[in-house]
């Protein structure tokens, strides 16, 4: 198999695996509902947690993280650890998660999938992302923790990559530059609500948008 075929294959599967909507799947299997009809209307782990509980939410979170980590690992070991391909695959898997073909291109916010990819690309930056978990735990604003954790960790990756610190490669900027902008864009409504002071906290009860089960 030629290198170009391997590259096309990896980038192809990066999108389609990233696009797997674990939140929608778990909602239908777990309770027979379309999770997008409840709470925030999102398909991510936070809305699943609020609507179906911590077990279902944890399952979705693990699945979304695994998508990002698995694809970047495949990219790393299939083509002699080409750093540009690892970074590109990580970015595309996040794009797949945010714009999934399976559910009309309306997906999640990319934080968990991005964290999975980041853990492979740069473990030190992934550790910095855990600051967001602390922020979310203290403030009960998951969106605030996601925004700050992603910004701090990916900002650190920009520095690590640009100066090639601790084995980082400049090609990692292919992940470090676009992904934070994608994540911030996906949170624009949350940012507006945070500024207005009416963002939902984690302990808030979800309000069904359409209180019905899927057929």
Highlighted features:
215 residues; mainly alpha; disordered C terminus
Characterize the main sheet. none
What does the overall shape look like?
A: globular
Radius of gyration from CA coordinates: 17 Å
Helix and strand composition category: mainly alpha
Oligomerization state: single chain
Distance N terminus to C terminus? 45 Å
Give the H and E element order: HHHHHHHHHHH
Whole-number mean pLDDT = 91
Helical residues, percent? 55-70%
The number of helical runs is: 11
Strand content: under 5%
Poorly predicted regions are 207-215
Structure summary, number of beta strands: 0
Please describe what this structure looks like:
By secondary structure, this protein is mainly α. Helices cover 68% and strands 0% of the residues. It contains eleven helices and no strands. The longest helix has 25 residues. The termini are far apart.
Summarize the SSE layout with pairings:
Blueprint: H1 3-18, H2 22-31, H3 45-52, H4 54-78, H5 83-98, H6 111-121, H7 123-139, H8 142-162, H9 173-176, H10 178-186, H11 188-196
Summarize the entry for a quick read:
This protein is mainly alpha-helical.
